[in-house]
Structures are given as structure tokens and as C-alpha cells.
């Protein structure tokens, strides 16, 4: 799964505008629990191995505070993505992110 930012244009650290970037979410659960976010111009850029974008104002990582039931539950990946969406939407606005559940 990943996150698609929709109906939104965001700036890279180099000052370029990117419309509707795609976000790969890496889940880390050793030592501490957090997600690292990698932004791409599109899903195809990710699949092609193109360089990730350095985003000016969007989070690069998100600390997770999981309950025991979340950790052992059936929706752990979705919980990670929803927490990341909450953090991204603090910048892009409510309703600008969706979970991309398509296969790669």
C-alpha cells in the first residue's frame, strides 16, 4: 500500500511544484515504531526507480503510538497509513490523501 495525495500541489525543497505526488510508506518496528515516507512524482516514478522527491513542508517520518491490539490486529498496515495521512493532511488539507491499495 501507499498514499496518493490528490487535488493538491506541493513544493519540493528545490522550489518545484508537484501535483498529486505518490508516497511510499516504510514501516519500522524495531526499537521504536515509526513510518518513513518517500515521495515521488507518481507511482510510475517509484516503479521505474526514479529519485524520490525532497519535500519542503511534508513529513519525512511519522512516529507511531500503537496499542497492543493495533500491533497484533489485522489492520496494522492501514493504521500506519492512516496516521501518515493525518500528518500529511496537516499541511495539504483534510481529504487530500487516499490509501493506494493497488498492487505494484
Whole-number total of structural domains: 1
Per DSSP, the total helix count is: 3
**In which order are the strands of the major sheet placed?**
6-5-4-1-7
* Fraction of residues in β-strands: 25-35%
- In angstroms, what is the radius of gyration? 14 Å
Mean pLDDT: 94
Structural class: alpha+beta
Largest sheet: 5 strands, antiparallel
Q: How do the helices and strands follow one another from N- to C-terminus?
A: EEEEEHEHHE
Low-confidence runs of at least 5 consecutive residues: none
Number of strands: 7
Shape: globular
Cα(first) to Cα(last) distance is 9 Å
Name the helicity range.
25-40%
Structure overview:
The protein is α+β, with helices and mostly antiparallel strands and 104 residues long. It has one domain. Helix content is 26%, strand content 30%. The protein is built from 3 helices and 7 strands; from the N terminus they run E-E-E-E-E-H-E-H-H-E. Strand 4 and strand 5 (34-40) form a beta hairpin. The mean pLDDT is 94.
Keywords summarizing the entry:
alpha+beta, two-stranded antiparallel ribbon, 7 strands, five-stranded antiparallel beta sheet
In short:
This protein has 104 residues and is α+β, with helices and mostly antiparallel strands. The chain contains three helices and seven strands; from the N terminus they run βββββαβααβ. A hairpin with a 5-residue loop joins β4 and β5.
Amino acid at each position: 500500500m501507499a498514499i496518493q495525495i490528490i487535488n493538491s500541489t506541493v513544493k519540493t525543497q528545490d522550489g518545484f511544484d508537484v501535483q498529486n505526488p505518490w508516497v511510499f510508506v516504510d514501516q519500522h518496528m524495531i526499537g521504536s515504531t515509526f513510518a518513513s515516507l518517500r515521495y515521488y512524482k507518481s507511482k510510475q516514478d517509484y516503479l521505474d526507480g526514479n529519485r524520490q522527491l525532497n519535500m519542503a513542508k511534508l513529513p519525512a517520518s511519522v512516529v507511531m503510538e500503537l496499542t497492543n491490539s493495533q500491533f497484533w490486529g489485522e489492520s496494522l498496515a492501514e493504521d500506519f497509513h492512516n496516521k501518515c495521512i493525518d500528518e500529511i493532511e496537516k499541511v495539504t488539507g483534510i481529504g487530500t490523501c487516499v490509501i493506494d491499495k493497488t498492487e505494484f
